[in-house]
């Protein structure tokens, strides 16, 4: 068992012991060296929340590091644990638990370095309170502003401003007042409703558990008093029931229950409910739990509901009160905090996870990005790590949602990279866009099958991908000639050509290439719908967009052909002299040289242009097509 596992077991015991007390979740944020770890370490230790094995380890560490006079260096404990978890990468937020007679606490310790915004957002998404630490000698920093912006973005309404290291400025009231006033101005700009400022020396314990004699001019609470008494209840009582279905419980033919945690409202047997997004209605029959059936259940409780009717309900659906259901939509205005190493590219599909539902989503437009230090709106074509943008989102299917301001569970989402499964963004849904609401799919009587029948062929999209000069155009051209000779109806979409018309507004940046492929894939889809065999010949360098294109077609309709020519060979051919230009630095973002090419992993066909002639390769494609 690792140290972390044993801590987890202890935590479970602690939580059980404190089960009857209120629970407060908070995060700590601040710049490096503001004293975060010391603050948390002391809170844990002085409230006797430290687990004994960790305390022993801590004292040993302190001795090893030669801390003054055998004193415990509290910072060591948390920094040590954080480092340990960092090796496991992904989330290195350290969740710590402690309790007093009045409350129990879960604190997410978010590392303060720039690149750790991801951890902070993770911690903040469930917290009720944020402790923002500021070094009294340094005042408000860019990092303080950034963290406070994220705190407000993620809906934390209560901030404890801990002006730390007051001992180093002689507990000077003027210093404290100036920082507190500056912060209140910032908070009101950001819409943070409740700010309490405390003059603190985390190291010495002044105003930490009890009020300190060193600050007779201060009559507010100590940090712990604040945490024990702050009222974070939200007025959710008037919201109707919302239960996102986590799983369908069907142990046998006679029982079918829908399990999940109630995120708003309450429920009783007999209540009328609606299931979203389908809109089907039913009535609650039982509220089942491990401890027996309940007469009523409310927000925060994990339950299994059984319904009067046999409805088709699956994970991700939301069971809601009939009188007051959440909305359903597939297009949104949203705030997106980008956490990916690679930039956000409009048009690229990501997985969006909202409540218990996962759907494919893309950003259709970045309205602007927000300078998190000044709140200025800046023009943007993409979002880089740690940037926040106001975006339009498009989902490939409708979901039940609520504005984040009203309900964090049904309004807060994350975006996941479809290749790496890494979390690349955290975001909030602001409101639904109505633009598609009044547009309905127009039924036509002559359909794709009818069009294909008259052409006596199966429509296809043959997608050639490869480096510039690999041979895409040459081979596609030969394939078309052969198909034409056989009486087939075809069309070639060639990158060079389409860029002269439909896509003449696009260049060769990553984001322009994503849009280039999105458009040509849509055109290819229309053409196959018209019954044609379409040959697409685009470099299409990114796996994500080739996959997006593939998903637009039926399973045997899309044939990915990798024209596999090594870079050195394509460069030697240099049909258009572009490689020479790129090498000379006169052509930026050139594929293979200053812009990446991601080779297909599982194409339907791989053409080795060193092994065979264009003619032979074209014949291979035709044979694959006409099987
Ligand atoms: N910077 C840069 N990088 C790559 N290619 C460049 C560039 N600048 C111009 N060209 C010419 O544009 C053709 C590629 O366009 P595509 O639309 O196929 O490219 S992409 O799919 O959007 O990556 C490509 O055609 P092919 O050589 O037929 O592939 C080039 O002739
Ligand atoms: N086996 C092969 N397959 C395709 N092209 C080849 C082959 N061998 C040599 N070539 C030459 O390589 C060049 C490929 O250029 P092109 O078809 O315009 O590539 P792309 O469309 O991928 O940029 C042509 O001059 C072609 O004659």
Give a verbal description of the structure.
The protein has 627 residues and is of the alpha/beta class. It folds into 4 domains: 10-229, Rossmann fold (3-Layer(aba) Sandwich); 236-321, Elongation Factor Tu (Ef-tu), domain 3 (Beta Barrel); 329-438, Beta Barrel (Elongation Factor Tu (Ef-tu), domain 3), CATH 2.40.30; 448-625, P-loop containing nucleotide triphosphate hydrolases (Rossmann fold), CATH 3.40.50.300. Helix content is 29%, strand content 28%. The strands form 5 sheets. The protein has a 7-stranded antiparallel sheet, with no helix packed on it. A hairpin with a 6-residue loop joins β18 and β19. It starts with a helix and ends with a helix. 43% of the residues are buried. Residues 466, 468-475, 537, 573, 575, 609, 612-614, 617 line the site of adenosine-5'-diphosphate. The site of 3'-phosphate-adenosine-5'-phosphate sulfate has 20 residues, from α12 and α13.
Can you give the helix content as a percent range? 25-40%
Bound chemical compounds: 3'-phosphate-adenosine-5'-phosphate sulfate, adenosine-5'-diphosphate
Low-confidence stretches: 1-20, 50-55, 64-91
End-to-end CA span: 57 Å
CATH superfamily membership of the largest domain: P-loop containing nucleotide triphosphate hydrolases
Strand content: 25-35%
The count of helical stretches stands at 17
State the major sheet.
7 strands, antiparallel
Strand order in the sheet with the most strands: 7-15-11-12-14-9-8
CATH fold category name of the largest domain: Rossmann fold
């Amino acid at each position: 068992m690792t140290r972390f596992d044993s801590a987890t077991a202890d935590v479970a015991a602690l939580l059980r012991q404190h089960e009857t007390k209120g629970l407060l979740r908070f995060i700590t944020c601040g710049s490096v060296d503001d004293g975060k770890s010391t603050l948390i370490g002391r809170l844990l230790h002085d409230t006797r929340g430290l687990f004994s094995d960790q305390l022993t380890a801590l004292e040993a560490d302190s001795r090893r590091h030669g801390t003054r006079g055998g004193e415990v260096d509290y910072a060591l404990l948390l920094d040590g644990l954080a480092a340990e978890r960092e090796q496991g990468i992904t989330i290195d937020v350290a969740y710590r638990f402690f309790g007093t007679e009045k409350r129990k606490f879960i604190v997410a310790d978010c590392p303060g370095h720039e690149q750790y915004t991801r951890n902070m957002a993770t911690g903040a998404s469930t917290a009720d309170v944020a402790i923002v630490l500021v070094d009294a000698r340094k005042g408000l920093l860019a990092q303080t502003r950034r963290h406070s912006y994220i705190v407000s973005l993620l809906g934390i309404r209560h901030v404890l401003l801990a002006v730390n290291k007051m001992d180093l400025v002689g507990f000077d009231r003027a210093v404290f007042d100036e920082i507190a006033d500056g912060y209140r101005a910032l908070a009101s700009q950001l819409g943070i409703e409740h700010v309490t400022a405390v003059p603190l020396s985390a190291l010495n314990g002044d105003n930490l558990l009890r009020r300190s004699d060193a600050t007779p001019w201060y009559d507010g609470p100590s940090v712990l008093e604040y945490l024990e008494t702050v009222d974070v209840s939200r007025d959710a009582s008037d919201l109707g029931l919302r239960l996102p279905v986590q799983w369908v419980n069907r142990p046998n033919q006679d029982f079918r229950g829908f399990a999940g945690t109630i995120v708003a409202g309450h429920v009783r047997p007999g209540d009328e409910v609606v299931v979203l997004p389908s809109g089907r209605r039913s009535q609650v029959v039982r509220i089942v739990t491990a401890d027996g059936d309940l007469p009523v259940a409310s927000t925060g409780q994990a339950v299994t509901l059984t319904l009067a009717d046999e409805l088709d309900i699956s994970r991700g659906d939301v069971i809601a009160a009939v009188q007051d259901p959440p909305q359903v939509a597939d297009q949104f205005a949203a705030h997106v905090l980008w956490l990916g190493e690679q930039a956000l590219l409009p048009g690229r599909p990501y997985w969006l996870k909202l409540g218990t539902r996962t759907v494919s989503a893309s950003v259709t437009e970045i309205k602007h990005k927000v300078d998190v230090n000044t709140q200025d709106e800046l023009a943007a074509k993409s979002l880089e790590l740690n940037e926040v943008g106001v975006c339009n989102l498009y989902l490939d299917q409708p979901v039940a949602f609520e504005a984040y301001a009203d309900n964090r569970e049904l309004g807060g989402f994350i975006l996941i990279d479809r290749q790496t499964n890494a979390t690349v963004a955290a975001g909030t849904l602001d409101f639904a866009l109505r633009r598609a609401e009044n547009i309905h799919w127009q039924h036509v009587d002559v359909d794709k099958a009818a069009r294909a029948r008259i052409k006596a062929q199966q429509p296809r999209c043959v997608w050639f991908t490869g480096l510039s000069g690999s041979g895409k155009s040459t081979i596609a051209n030969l394939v078309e000639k052969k198909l034409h000779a056989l009486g087939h109806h075809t069309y070639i979409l060639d990158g060079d050509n389409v860029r002269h018309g439909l896509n003449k507004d696009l260049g060769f940046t990553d984001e322009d290439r994503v849009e280039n492929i999105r458009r040509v894939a849509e055109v290819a889809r229309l053409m196959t719908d018209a019954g044609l065999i379409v040959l697409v010949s685009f470099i299409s360098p990114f796996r994500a967009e080739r996959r997006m294109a593939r998903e637009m077609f039926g399973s045997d309709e899309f044939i990915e052909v990798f024209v596999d020519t090594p870079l050195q060979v394509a460069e030697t051919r240099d049909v258009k002299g572009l490689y020479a230009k790129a090498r000379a630095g006169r052509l930026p973002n050139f594929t293979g040289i200053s812009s990446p090419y991601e080779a297909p992993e599982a194409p339907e066909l791989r053409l080795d242009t060193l092994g065979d002639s264009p003619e032979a390769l074209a014949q291979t494609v035709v044979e694959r097509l006409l099987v």
